[in-house]
Design a protein that fits this description.
Length: 356
């Protein structure tokens, strides 16, 4: 039996892939320790999965105070490594993983990294030279990497929840009692919501509602839900508007078209489910959603619009829903991007390296 330290945090886009890998290690009889921030969402999510967790007091920023704090945290992480004696350490990006990965390099542990986005994040960019392997979600990331280091990388896709590999579109449509001639449109801007998407949907809501044989599942996000509902009249009882859907993957599986942001996990889920999509990336360069969206656009599996074009995207969506052949072509194009089960591929690779 081996012990693995997993480190990351901050957002679900980093934490959920890490949890998927953690569960796979545990299922194979290994011990797992998760090291993350003591103040971000992983402090609640990880213990809920009954995975041992150590929180460190880390904050973003380049101030002198933060730099000294991170140096102190590196020494703390070295003590954790001495106590736990892990065989491997794997980081899933974000500044939160920085001190543990650096401590692992100093302690000469087997280091692995995983990158969820199309472009390498700062921490992974700093440390990939010292890693046994860095696992990539997308082939396009190789464009960021010098040729002499490319053998240190492997494209696996993003680790996703295991149930997504067993979902069947027909079965999910039957659960929702969807008729064969009925189309499903899923709209989501993430857990907090996306104002540009919500505003566009609100403006076109009456048009969407009067479209025959169309059922809408709209996740507004928790931030905007109450205000949206005040001004919204839902006439079609089959249309569902909620802050968030706990079974969003199942609903997406049943869908004919998805309108959403372009977060790394969202893109990976769309690929696995082979869903035509209209993507409206979050416009921060730091987040890298536009580069994620381009992957699907270049493979003709998605149309991409910016925030200012959100209303236009709704009009395009309505036309696209009337064009079954176009939707089928988009779905077929996405198949070329699919990978095998990323979670199992990552754990398999780490076990091979460990045993050599």
């Amino acid at each position: 039996m081996s012990k693995v330290i997993i480190t990351t945090g901050g957002t679900g886009g980093h934490i959920y892939p890490a949890l998927a890998v953690a569960k796979e290690f545990i299922a194979r009889g290994n011990e797992v320790l998760f090291v993350g921030s003591s103040s971000r969402m992983e402090k609640d999510l990880v213990p809920k999965e009954n995975i041992p967790f150590i929180g460190i007091d880390i904050h973003p920023g380049k101030s002198i105070k933060n730099i000294f704090s991170i140096i102190s945290l590196v020494f703390k992480c070295m003590k954790i490594i001495d106590k736990e004696n892990p065989t491997d350490i794997i980081g899933f990006g974000n500044y939160i993983s920085f001190p543990m990965i650096l401590a692992g390099i100093i302690k000469r542990k087997n280091i692995y990294l995983q990158e969820q986005n199309a472009n390498l994040g700062m921490t992974n960019r700093l440390f990939y030279r010292f890693a046994k392997k860095t696992f990539l979600a997308f082939n396009s990331t190789y464009e960021d990497i010098p040729i002499k280091y490319q053998d240190k990388f492997k494209v696996t896709g993003n680790p996703l929840r295991d149930e997504i590999y067993h979902i069947n579109k027909t079965e999910e449509r039957e659960k929702l009692k969807v008729s064969p001639d009925e189309k499903i449109l899923v709209i989501t801007g993430g857990s907090l919501g996306a104002k540009s998407i919500n505003d566009a949907v609100s403006k076109y809501w009456d048009v969407l509602e009067t479209r025959k044989n169309l059922r809408i599942y709209w996740a507004t996000g928790t931030k905007n839900y109450d205000d949206i509902l005040k001004n919204l009249e839902i006439k079609n009882i089959n249309n569902v508007v909620k802050p968030y859907f706990d079974n969003l993957i199942n609903i997406m599986a049943a869908a004919d078209l998805v309108i959403c942001r372009a977060g790394a996990l969202t893109i990976s889920e769309i690929i696995q489910l082979e869903k035509p999509s209209i993507l409206i990336p979050y416009n921060s360069i730091k987040v890298g959603q536009y580069e994620n969206a381009l992957i699907l656009k270049e493979h003709k599996g998605a149309l991409v619009y910016n925030n200012n074009e959100a209303q236009e995207s709704i009009e395009v969506a309505l036309d696209l829903l009337d064009n079954t052949n176009a939707l089928n072509r988009m779905a077929h194009s996405i198949k070329t991007l699919k990978t095998s089960n990323a979670t199992k591929s990552i754990v398999d690779t780490m076990e091979i390296w460990r045993n050599n």
